[in-house]
Amino acid sequence: MDDANSIMKTTISLSTPDQFEGEALAAIILDHAEKKPSDSPQNTNSPGKDKQSKPQLQVEASGGAIQSAAGDLLASGELTGRPFEINLLHKPAGLKAKRLLLISSGGAKKFSSYDLRRIAGAAVRTLKARGLRSLAFIAPTSIPAEEAVRAIVEGALVGNFDPDYYRSDRKEQKIDFLTILTSGDKAALERVAQEAQVIGESQNFTRDLVNEPSNRMTPTILGERAKKMCQEVGLKCEVYGADKIKEMKMGAFWSVAQGSDEPPALIVMTYEPAGAPEKPVLGLVGKGITFDTGGISIKPADGMEKMKYDMAGGATMIGAMRAIALLKPKVKVIGIVCATENMPSGKAQKPGDVQIAMSGKSIEIINTDAEGRLVLADGLFYARQLGCTHLVDAATLTGAVVVALGYANAGVFANDDAMYDRFHKANEEAGEKMWRLPLDDEYKENIRSTIADIVNSGGRWGGAINAAMFLKEFAEDTPWIHLDIAGTAWMEDQKPWIAKGPSGVALRSLVEFVKGFAN
Question: Quick one: DSSP state of residue 199?
Fold first, then answer.
């Protein structure tokens, strides 16, 4: 990595937009038109079905000068008000800023911090592409000030990241200075901005790990990066190799690792703040497959290069531990990453093999490409051995979850409703899209084996659920959440607010979840 995760300095200013002097001032345009029933595409019988209510666009900023600067553009009728419609005005009349960036965000009625986070990212990506280094963002008054500051900082940092740092002709394009123009208690807003900075930087740290190609992010290197991070933020970190994995009888984990020339790494990060109660102890377990060929059940060649991202769950847990260490919630947390490659070789496990997990359960291997659940099985059980009372795992686990939910939502599974309610609340506060899928007992039939306790692949139908049912066998009665991020950990296309490539999804939700236990 080069400067992809460079620090962006954030300042809170109580100045009015009219007073701001700088390279660029960004403001949001919202459509305040009341949508009538006839505007709905479902209402095809309405006589007004062909009419669209005229947009009533307004700049979400106080001060006459900024309204005046945007006035001609708004009056021209050129704008539709659709999300991410961008206009850049040079030398705006009545303003001291050199440029005024106007970004539309659709209807005012549904506008939320989720939208604001993306608009902030889009503002950063628009201006840095033009070679600018600083930005002032006007916080909208329709969202509480602290919530708005948090969304703007997080969104801006995510927008500032680009994954192209191995290009020899790369031009350094990034925003170095972000000013947020708002009102309220400046000290309180600065604390919120500082916390958001930690979370945004940790999300980018995760994205950087995921972005690395597998020849530059082996299990050994992932362990080294985790250890270095832990030293920087004051976490205890231990990285174990093949001998320790075999000594601890992690047969499921080792069965995946045995086919690769690259040694595996069991990464254990421990956060024990002074004054934290003995319980709960939260266990964050991540799948760290640094490259997944599928093993003997080899994947098609088309698109296999993306399988460097199969350690995104592990990277997310490393990034989350970074944020937790810096934010210092009063709760004990242990992060565990089971890192290995999944390779085909003369040493690799084969379909039909039977492996014995650390818990003692026997597993019939049906498909060697269902390897993530094998490493997590031992990771979850080991977390319980270390005293974890609550478990969350994250993994790019199944293509089936993408079939079920597409690229918009991650899949969430839980064996405990109270645990799920806690996580769902954290998830909503973090502004990440996830959807709960069932874990009914009927699905257990799909993972029964005729010669062992369970199979590692339950067939085509309900594949994401079958994988979760497999993991549930190792969480047992410990309250547990499983996040299948296969469809959301990688952005398939460039978006206005985020680069194509790793997304860092789930980190914000995990940090909120941990903070919730501390509170």
Answer: H
pLDDT mean values, one per 10 residues, the chain (519 residues) = 66 94 96 68 48 81 83 87 95 94 96 98 98 97 97 98 93 94 98 98 98 98 98 98 98 98 98 97 98 98 97 98 98 98 98 98 98 98 98 98 97 98 98 98 97 95 97 98 98 97 98 95
Under 8 Å between Cβ of 518 and 330: yes
| Residue 110: CB atoms within 10 Å | 11
In b/e form, how buried is each residue of 258-288, taking b as 16+ CB within 10 angstroms? bbbebbbbbbbbbbeeeebeeebbbbbbbbb
Looking at residue 333, the DSSP 8-state letter turns out to be: E
Active site residue 373: yes
Element spanning 162, H or E? none
HSE-up of residue 334 (Cα within 13 Å, Cβ side): 23
pLDDT digits (tens, 9 = 90+) for 194-212: 999 999 999 999 999 999 9
Dihedrals phi, psi of 225, to nearest 5 degrees: -65, -40
Residue 382 CA to its chain's centroid (Å): 25
What pLDDT, on the 0 to 100 scale, is given for residue 3? 44
Q: Rounded CA gap, 268 and 237, in Å?
A: 6
**Is 422 an active-site residue?**
no
Give the rounded distance of the alpha carbon of 238 from its chain centre. Answer: 25
Residue 193 CA to residue 11 CA, distance in Å, equals: 8
Q: What is the pLDDT of residue 449?
A: 98
* Cα diameter, the chain: 79
List the catalytic residue out of 98, 299, 328, 495.
299
Q: Which of 373, 422, 472, 508 is catalytic?
A: 373
**Please, what is the angle between helix 312-327 and helix 507-518, to 10°?**
40
Give the pLDDT confidence score for residue 206 in this predicted structure: 98
Q: Are 211 and 302 in contact (CB under 8 A)?
A: no
Q: What is the pLDDT of residue 52?
A: 59
Residue 286 and residue 391 in contact, taking contact as beta carbons nearer than 8 Å: no
Q: Is 198 left (phi over 0), alpha (psi -120 to 50) or beta?
A: alpha
Which residue from 335, 398, 365, 352 is spatially nearest to 251, judged by alpha carbons? 365
| Tokens, residue 11 | 């300042």
pTM value is 0.95
Distances (CA, A) of 40 to 35, 43, 106, 111, 447: 8, 5, 15, 18, 45
Taking residue 142's Cβ as centre, other Cβ atoms within 10 Å add up to 14
Burial bucket for residue 167 (CB in 10 Å: 0-12, 13-18, 19+): exposed
**Nearest 5°: CA angle at 496, between 494 and 499?**
40
- Taking 3-state DSSP, the helix, strand and coil percentages for the chain, each rounded to the nearest 5, stand at 35, 20, 40
- CA nearest neighbour of 83 among 496, 463, 443: 496
Distance of alpha carbon 161 from alpha carbon 90, whole angstroms: 26
According to the model, what pLDDT value does residue 1 have? 45
In 3D space, the residue among 359, 389, 352, 399 whose CA is nearest the CA of residue 376 turns out to be: 359
Of 189, 93, 85, 175, nearest in space to 134 by CA: 175
